[in-house]
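#struct-queue
[09:14] JT: dropping the first one here, sequence first, then the structure tokens:
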Amino acid sequence: MTSVMAIESRAYPHPWSEGVMRDCLRTGHHCWLTLYGSRIIGHSVMSIAADESHLLNIAIDPKYHGQGYGRILLRHMLELAQKQNVGTVFLEVRDSNHTAAALYDSVGFNEVGRRRGYYPDKKGREDAIVYGLIL
């Protein structure tokens, strides 16, 4: 858990707490790691209920950004959702996270809405763009 939390804190200005991560494991969410050799360099968390999935968290250590690991992890999560007969995958991304938005756009996600003030921000709150992908 230490490596995951270290990546979480480097990847996000407002990272998840260890308690939230542990709750995701306890409740049976799909939690995956990305490895470079034996080193953990990323993680993802996805919930599945009925025929919908929610990609709750995907993070790659910033040292490994721009090398395709986020795309590999995202594709793995989408394949897992397909195998679970999910019809639609949803996720939220910070309005300011243009790199992540470009990744989601490139694999076929579409903006389906906004959540005003969803994320904490240094200046208060930041909107989330809600994306959906029909599998």
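[09:21] JT: and here's the second one, same format:
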Amino acid sequence: MTDRLRSAVYSAEDQWSETMNRGGKVDFHGSVIEVPVQRRFGDLGAIETYLSWVTSLPCVVECFGRVAPVGVRARKGQAKAHYEPVEGVIAIPLDTRWAARESVVLHELAHHIVMSRDGNDGPAHGAAFTVAMCALVECALGPESALLLRTSYAGLGLATVMP
């Protein structure tokens, strides 16, 4: 199945992630909101600990139920991180700074949640994915961060709520 939404999702998340790299006060259409600086991870153990923390957050459990365990492995190369649905594993290149950060880990966790729940029935970056990503961001980073992501998605015509 062609994933025609992938480039739009990546574009929206790149914009959002750049803001999260800086954190602090952000002028949002004339209002000032405060966003956290996104975490960066130095090793697989830190990512595993973070994933365990996120999946046990009360609001994540409320949104998605008990999340199936997800593994993490180092990925060779610097091209991209990815989710391996058969194994339930997130592959992160650790030899590059862009990948070992919170926005990338949450993106891959959203794939894990959606595919564990729905299988491969829809586009990988469709509405189920973007809605799950927004919920994860709100739970892990707060409503201000989720507002920025939803706005980035909506600006590119991507779903932020289920139809």
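[09:30] RK: nice, looked through the second one.
[09:31] RK: The longest strand covers residues 24-28.
[09:31] JT: good to know. The two ends are 21 Å apart (CA to CA).
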